[in-house]
Amino acid sequence: MEQARKLLIKRRNVEYVLQYSNVTPFMWHKGKYRCFFCSEAIKDPAVLREHSATAHQFENLELMVYDRTKNNRNKDAAVKIDVTNIACRLCPQAINSLEQLIHHLIIAHDAEYDMSVPNCLLPFKLDKDQPTCPTCNMKFVFFEYLLRHANKHHLSHQYICDVCGTSFQGENHLKMHYRYYHREGGYTCEYCGITLATLSKKILHEKNVHLVNLSTCPHCPETFKSPYLKKLHLANVHGVEELKIKCPYCPKVYPQESIMSRHMRRVHLREKNVECEVCGDKFFGPYDVKLHMVKHDGEKKFVCTVCGKRFSKKGNLNSHYVVHTGQKLYSCTLCNKSFSHQANLRMHTKTRHENCELQNNALVEDIDDTEMVQMEIIQDELDVKDITEEYIIS
């Protein structure tokens, strides 16, 4: 009953803000902005604001807010609103933020907004080229990154997973998280029949080992494990001007200032601020230290079900498993040899075609620093015989 009471208060709070201000509610579905009232997909936020203000000026807010929050998944979710040029409809008082607007409506206009219920609204400043977080003024190239940032940093997360400590804004999100990551039920891979403990492990196994549900490049056969990697590929390989933040030291481009800055500090400035407690070697970040610790720990708990070879990292096991599947997706453009891993192709090009200096330099520069670490660890774990066989078979 308490959850039902909070939902009623949330709906009323949303209605007050939509009724007494000029903010624009919207939805985000399948990579598109959608009108909160009629679900029409509208690419330009300026057009979306104009459409909402004119076409839905006299909408029944109570009915619409109820309709948008009756779905189980949306009961806990905050209603997304565009607060660009936010203003009060009842008076000319200057307003700078959603928080200021709420306090103004309560104090100046006696609005019955209940502050005890959090996460009713999530504000954004929408712009076609550079959407902005109004809470911390951080700018993004793509809205999906801004949405992820806002959900993570600017919502009051009251529900905490007692297994891993991750927090969520609502009970439904927590339940979905638990079902996906922690509920063990013996999930069987549809392609090779092995049993995985959780649903997330099954999905990850099928994606990494059997290349299931990978995003494909529209211009070449390359596949990707995340939308970010696909966009990065489109910008760097095919010249698609979607990613606009360019590194000042090299031709690489990134979808977010913070990611570009991290690349610059890691690759070009060679920052190493985190020290290994065992040997004193310094690394860029905690993740690099974690990878390095494999050399000290010596534990190899991931076992190949085909040949029994053991690995210290699951990623290395997945990379090794491709040898058994026989899939060779990467071909050398100079001699037509094929390889199971892109890193092997690059190493082959560097060592076998050293006379092509210009192409070699471009390929070596294109190897990401994290991939270099991955290659180093894989080669540490495979003996010389394995590496030789890989090239002989190819």
TrEMBL record:
Pfam entry (one): zf-C2H2
SMART domains recorded: ZnF_C2H2
PANTHER family named among the record's database cross-references: C2H2-TYPE DOMAIN-CONTAINING PROTEIN, KRAB AND ZINC FINGER DOMAIN-CONTAINING
One of the record's GO molecular function terms: zinc ion binding
Keywords carried by this UniProt record: Metal-binding, Repeat, Zinc, Zinc-finger
InterPro entries reported for this sequence: Znf_C2H2_type
Source species: Manduca sexta (Tobacco hawkmoth)
Domain C2H2-type: 159-182, 245-273, 274-301, 302-329, 330-358
Keyword Ion transport recorded: no
Protein name (Swiss-Prot/TrEMBL): C2H2-type domain-containing protein
Organismal lineage: Eukaryota, Metazoa, Ecdysozoa, Arthropoda, Hexapoda
